[in-house]
Design brief:
Layout lengths: L10 E6 L3 E7 L5 E8 L5 H19 L4 E6 L2 E2 L6 E2 L11 H9 L4 E4 H12 L7 E7 L3 E7 L2 E2 L36 H5 L1 H10 L7 H9 L3 H25 L3 E5 L8 H8 L12 E3 L7 H7 L4
Parallel strand pairs: 1-4, 4-7, 8-11, 11-12
Antiparallel strand pairs: 1-2, 2-3, 5-6, 8-9, 9-10
């Protein structure tokens, strides 16, 4: 029997990533009832729109109801043009994604940056639940953050609230200058130092063998000198970058997400390193692992609807 007429329809969240597109259905209590993941046609914009449309229709068919739809993207919708901007998946830049999804699905679709979705998820019913101000930080292929205050996601008049990754790395050492060129056109963005690929490049530049972040961490534990140095530089740079955010926002909690957030030592090392850079006699901001892991982004997209 169809549930289309029910007063509290399920929420659908879609996470549009560079390599995969994931969808989740949450019931009124926030419980995940359907979850699917498919490969993303990353370089074909039309195929991306069609894949999202087909996923939504497939899940709605299974549920027997028409749902609200929220989408997390690696970018933001310009308040001026309505087109996508600031996306490290550059195929999206300049595209009318919100309009095209609305036409494809025949309803309003809410879109937010993937870091905003992550922050909203963790602040709603994750590690940041109960805190007044939560900064959700993504450390993955890209670097960004979202800000939730008293349960409300901040976006700002320019739709860039939390674009922490595209500020310069604070307190740069001479060896870090002028810094790598970022896809945004600037040099020395935080993202160019703290993303997963940047961590790997730093290790290789120090004489290490190319590998993944987990492989570099394993090499560091085994005493590899290049890996130990890369980890030390990463921790110090992350402490500097987070301290700058704390000095501006002074959040109650910082929740880390993305592939690099799986490094257990972050949650021990960062509280020890932050006081050297934060403009305070003590640092009471909590640094927390995500409660929902790599599901937070897609859950937060669903939470874009009340």
């Amino acid at each position: 029997m169809s549930r289309i007429a029910e007063p509290n329809p399920s929420r659908l969240g879609v996470d549009l990533g560079g390599t995969k597109i994931e969808i989740v259905a949450l019931d009124a209590a926030g419980t995940s009832i359907v979850r699917r993941r498919v490969a993303s046609p990353a370089y074909d914009y039309g195929a991306i729109v069609e894949t999202i449309g087909a996923l939504v229709e497939s899940v709605e068919s299974e549920l027997g109801e028409r749902c609200t739809v929220g989408v997390g993207t690696p970018g933001a919708v310009s308040r001026t043009t309505g087109l996508m901007k600031n996306a490290n998946s550059t195929v999206l830049i300049g595209r009318p994604l919100a309009h095209d999804l609305r036409v494809r699905l025949g309803r309003e679709v809410r879109i937010a940056n993937d870091a905003d979705c992550f922050a909203l998820s963790e602040a709603s019913d994750g590690a940041g639940a109960g805190y007044g101000c939560v900064l959700g930080v993504i450390l993955g292929t890209g670097v960004g953050s979202g800000i939730v205050v008293s349960g409300r996601l901040l976006t700002g008049p320019n739709a860039i609230a939390g674009e922490w990754g595209h500020n310069p790395l604070p307190w740069q050492l001479p060896s870090e200058q002028p810094g790598p060129r970022c896809y945004c056109g600037k040099d020395a963005c935080i993202e160019t130092f703290l993303s997963g690929p940047s961590f790997v490049r730093d290790y290789v530049a120090a004489g290490g063998h190319a590998g993944s972040v987990p492989e570099i961490l394993a090499a560091a534990r085994a005493g590899d000198v290049a890996a130990v140095g890369a980890v030390e530089r990463y921790l110090d740079r992350l402490a500097r970058a987070l301290a700058a955010a704390i000095n501006v926002l002074d959040p109650d909690a910082i929740v880390l997400g993305g592939g690099v957030s799986n490094v257990d030592s972050l949650y021990e090392e960062l509280p020890r390193r932050l006081p050297a850079y934060v403009f305070s006699d003590s640092v009471r901001t909590r640094v927390l692992a995500p409660a929902h892991g790599d599901s937070s982004g897609v859950r937060g997209a669903a939470w874009l609807w009340p």
